[in-house]
Write a structure and sequence with these properties.
- It comes from Paenibacillus rhizoplanae.
- Keywords: Hydrolase.
- This is Glycoside hydrolase family 3 N-terminal domain-containing protein.
- One of its GO terms (molecular function) is hydrolase activity.
- By secondary structure, the protein is α/β, with parallel strands linked by helices.
- It is built from 22 helices and 30 strands.
- It has a six-stranded parallel sheet. The chain has a six-stranded mixed sheet with strand order 13-20-19-16-14-15, with helices on both faces.
- A hairpin with a 5-residue loop joins strand 2 and strand 3.
- Helix 2 runs antiparallel to helix 13, helix 6 runs parallel beside helix 7 and helix 6 runs antiparallel to helix 16.
- The longest helix is centred in the first third of the chain and has 18 residues.
- It is globular and about 75 Å long.
- It starts with 9 loop residues before the first helix and ends with a strand.
């Protein structure tokens, strides 16, 4: 059997195996049931297979399993019923062994896991959410994180991850904003490239590599009104120039799996969009991997998009368009064989999809090394070095939006500090969506971090939750105000929550303790499927801030949230504002590090924050024809893309473009001097923007085309250089080709999208 000979080329092994398979076995490779439903945890800790899973294996096999190790309220897997790192590896091995031994050809299962900001399994390291990861402006550090995520996932047997999310956010009311890197396609592309390199590593069959899956293809973040899975209204030219750019770059970097989006574009569902999946992805970009749907997306073709009159029609549409695997649905399993029998599909269509999946299984080494090492999983997952990396990343991602009269950093000699707010000591609220249940003590909250930073002196820190994220109860106000009145300064941790109901029950607003009752309470106002009509603080959080402000104490607001918050009163009245997004399990330490000046903040916004929701959209790269203003306000963001403050001050000077005139195929070297003018060391994100001043197509006023994060000691100057050539100057023309037109360009370098130096660059006519 050639397919069992690891010395043979992958192509030969695939073809040999494919010709041995029955129609049912081929169809089985396209099927991906819910993994947590395939096993049962026995009283002695071992894993048994469910009868349903046994039947699927007997009927032709199971190509892949989704979220076998996933634990959260949606799966119903808890700390009690779930699996430890070692147990998880043992369970995956047991499932794999059963599938390979009980199926006719011994084809291994591909275990696909969620790893957006850490493997979504019990005990795995929880890093900051992608919106925070983007705010680092440090793709290399993100790649380091992805290496850790791949190691922790593969050590338990997971071989594919459904990340990174490369969606470009147009409307931050969208609940999945936290899962993205922000609003700019260039920055998202840079992060996507590093994700592919970090997750897939040098070799797919290595013990620390997993298959990266780019999602959601395409334009998922550009939906109507910011509503999840809503229609997208966009022309092909803009689609190629903006939303497809990150995907193209990640495919060029070697990505071998792509997930389609739920939405439609101009009436065509992405799940059946042959132009996207065949013409663009495979023919233009040369993609060689496989395409998977999002969960339940095929069902939307008959009940939602209504482009198919039956399941049989739906699977025929999808397979012919270029879908290779169905995530966690039953459409392929139920209808592919029938569609072939009725002539709506050819067996060659099925062969093509099955071959793509088998090829990746061979490349991942699953046929030759199908089992995980439970001892390795136990020793690697969640180890101290990974927690320290999570802390380092959180430090770099936190953005200081305001610091009036040097309110920060706080002195550790402070007499008393009040730590107030619903996010001050709420572990799940600082983790974001796609997070597993956490054992006590695994998460460092803001309160924990501040107490430890102050040496554990209990009498120095006064704590009160004050209120919930949602709801109108003010019963905690009196205690919160009493704490604030006694303190020298107030740290107010407010914002949002993407925490699903992990069984914490209600919260005692006097003590902040969890009170488990039969009446659970969810503060979730962000996350998948949780879209909003406004961007204001929910509940009575703003009122709590206003009451505390009346006491006249320094007020430091720490936002913990998954999308921008538009609260003009906070902007005007808070003495300092930190935007932490969801900073992960070490977030409390990282926030304390910045509050007390142990770390100089270096995070910068990757998404514009509006003054009011009525300004949306406010992304910075809008076209010159955007109009004038509203009657009530202008259209400028409260905090622009790229913005962020430091405890020191950086100055820009001596911007040069050499040579100032180039051809379309030549490069210019752009240089700018950056000086630390303050008295503290710090890191600055130097940003390069380019404006095409006259073009055949209406262009954005400016677009990010380069960035570099540098560290400077007080008084030091560094010359930062960028190369500008065809890739930085081109745009997508009316005929969908990428061109560089001759003419005048402006090259801009500065600290953010609304503040920069500018110099001219000319592209001359050819010949």
């Amino acid at each position: 059997m050639i397919y069992k000979d690891k010395a043979r080329p992958v192509e030969d092994r695939v073809q040999d195996l494919l010709q041995r398979m029955t129609l049912g076995e081929k169809a089985g490779q396209l099927v991906q049931p819910f993994g947590w439903q395939c096993y049962e945890k026995q009283a002695d800790g071992t894993t048994g297979m469910t009868e349903a899973f046994k039947r699927q294996v007997a009927a032709g096999g199971v190509g892949s399993l989704y979220g076998t190790l996933r634990a959260d309220p949606w799966t119903g897997v808890t700390l009690k019923t779930g699996l430890s790192p070692k147990e998880g590896a043992e369970a995956v091995n047991a499932i794999q062994a059963y599938a390979m031994k009980e199926s006719r050809l011994g084809i291994p299962i591909l275990f696909g896991e969620e790893c957006s900001h850490g493997h979504m399994a019990i005990g795995a390291t929880v890093f900051p959410v992608p919106l925070a990861l983007g705010s680092m402006w440090n793709p290399e550090l993100y790649r380091e994180m992805c290496r850790v995520v791949a190691l922790e996932t593969r050590s338990q047997g997971g071989a594919a991850t459904y990340s990174p999310v490369l969606d470009v956010v147009r409307d931050p009311r969208w609940g999945r904003t936290e899962e993205t890197f922000g609003e700019d396609p260039f920055l998202i592309a840079a992060m996507g490239v590093e994700a592919v390199k970090g997750l897939q590593g040098e070799r797919l069959d290595a013990e620390d590599s997993v298959l990266a899956t780019l999602k959601h293809f395409a334009a998922y973040g550009s939906s109507e009104g910011g509503r999840n899975s809503a229609p997208v209204h966009m022309g092909l030219r803009e689609l190629h120039e903006v939303d497809l750019l990150p995907f193209r770059k990640a495919v060029e970097a070697g990505a071998l799996s792509i997930m389609t989006a739920y939405n439609e574009i101009d009436g065509v569902p992405c799940t059946t969009n042959r132009y996207l999946l065949q013409d663009v992805l495979r023919e233009q970009w040369g993609f060689e991997g496989f395409v998977i749907t999002d969960c339940g997306a095929l069902g939307m073709l008959t009940n939602g998009h209504n482009t198919a009159d039956s399941g049989e029609t739906a699977v025929a549409q999808a397979l012919l368009a270029g879908i290779d695997m169905e995530m966690s649905g039953e459409m392929f399993e139920q209808h592919i064989a029938v569609a072939i029998t009725h002539g709506r599909l050819q067996e060659s269509d099925l062969d093509r999809a099955a071959a793509r999946i088998l090829e990746l299984k061979f490349k991942l080494g699953l046929f030759d090394r199908p089992y995980a090492d439970p001892e390795q999983a136990e020793s690697i997952i969640g180890k101290p070095e990974h927690r320290e990396l999570a802390r380092r990343i959180a430090r770099e991602s936190i953005i200081m939006l305001k610091n009036e009269n040097a309110a920060l950093p706080l002195s550790k000699e402070i007499r008393k500090l009040a730590v107030i707010g619903p996010n001050a000591d709420a572990p799940y609220n600082q983790l974001g969506d796609y997070t597993s249940p956490q054992p006590a003590g695994a998460i460092v909250t803001v309160l924990d971090g501040i107490r430890q930073a102050l040496g554990g002196e209990a009498d120095k820190v006064l704590y009160a939750p004050g209120c919930r994220i949602k709801g109108d109860s003010r019963e905690g106000f009196d205690h919160a105000l009493a704490c604030a009145a006694e303190a020298d300064a107030v740290v107010l941790a407010i914002g949002g929550s993407s925490a699903r109901d992990f069984g914490e029950g209600t919260i005692d607003l006097l003590t902040g303790a969890s009170v488990v009752t039969e009446h659970s309470w969810s503060d979730m106002e962000c996350g998948e499927g949780i879209d909003r009509a406004t961007l204001n603080l929910m509940g009575v959080q703003l009122e709590l801030a206003q009451e505390i402000h009346k006491l006249g104490k320094p007020l430091i607001v720490v936002y913990i949230n998954g999308r921008p918050i538009a609260e003009p009163w906070i902007v005007e009245h808070a003495d300092a504002i930190l935007e932490a997004w969801y900073p992960g399990q070490e977030g409390g330490h990282a926030i304390a590090d910045i509050l007390f000046g142990e770390v100089n903040p270096s995070g910068r916004l990757t998404i514009s924050i509006p003054k009011h929701v009525g300004q949306l959209p406010v992304y910075y790269y809008k076209r010159r024809t955007r109009g004038k203003r509203y009657l009530e306000t202008d259209f400028h963001a409260e905090y622009p893309f790229g913005y962020g403050l430091s405890f020191t001050e950086f100055g820009y000077s001596n911007l040069k473009v050499e040579p100032p005139v180039i051809s379309a195929d030549e490069e210019a070297l752009v240089s700018v001097d950056v000086t630390n003018r303050g008295d503290r060391a710090g890191s600055e994100v130097v940003q390069l923007y380019i404006s095409d001043l006259v073009s055949s197509i209406t262009r954005p006023e400016k677009q990010l085309k380069g960035f570099r994060k540098i560290s400077l000691q007080p008084g030091d100057t560094q010359t930062v250089t960028f190369r500008v050539g065809r890739e930085e100057l081109e745009y997508v023309s009316a005929d969908l080709t990428r061109i560089v037109e001759p003419g005048e360009f402006a090259v801009m370098a500065g600290p953010h999208s609304a503040e920069y130096l500018s110099a001219p660059l000319q592209v001359r006519e050819e010949g």
